[in-house]
Amino acid sequence: MDTSRIVVIGKSGQLARAFQDILPASTIFLSREDLNLLDTQKIYPTLMELRPSCVICAAAYTQVDLAESHSQEAETINALAPFEAARACAQLDIPLVHFSTDYVFDGQSTIPYKEEDVPHPLNVYGSSKLNGERLVQKTWPKHLIFRVTWLYSEYGKNFLNTMLRLGKEREALRVVHDQVGSPTYVADVAHAVNALLQKENIQWGLYHLTNAGRASWYEFAQEIFALARQHSLPLQVREVQPIATTEYPTPAQRPQLSLLSNQKYENEFHHTLRHWKVALADCMQKSL
Fold first, then answer.
1. Could you tell me which of 32, 51, 139, 275 has the fewest CB atoms within 10 Å of its CB?
2. Is 185 a catalytic residue?
3. Tens of pLDDT along 122-143?
């Protein structure tokens, strides 16, 4: 695939930051100032003017709870914006890489979700991301949509950085134990996508892409603090208490099971992402 002129929509987010470390110097990263996704009418002409060889849509409205009261904003950024990007990619005959989420499912399954499982989002954020998937799929076949879950990195707002901050400020924390997923390091996602972009023959479509293994938010927090202590990071926290979801009410309902099966991705591309604990240790080492 031609990677000489990739355009990445979104510049300051976790995924975009990870792509900045590995994509060619010719890559164009569009910030919110360059392209405001709420102004969807500018997306198509902007991409037509840039004439990229590939578009990576790494921007999204990810404030899950706020989306409940800002549904139009979430729908515009998560559904209408990727639709406009897909429309431009179709006109230019170039690939579109887009990212979705485990939140398209209701979490009632007892086994990891596969791509062909029927979505049933529980909240506005999940619905907006599902609408984005479907609009891209209907608009342009030459796409790669990756559903990812529990993303974290050394950059920005995420569970890892929140736990490290709270661990320095408080002696006791309460963390939900009955929601299960696969903590996923954005650098691993970026490297996997970049490797695919080097291939000549790609099977386009929808894939699940997460680090291996499973954990609850409580277990994720425990591993973060264990690694922090190994690195002698200053912590005040002495107790992490597991609590039920019902004890931590939020505006948006969360799925209890956020596990995604990577089998389709592994079968098609002959690659397996490493275990989340290995990836987390690597991430924390880099952030020191």
1. 51
2. no
3. 999 999 999 999 999 999 999 9
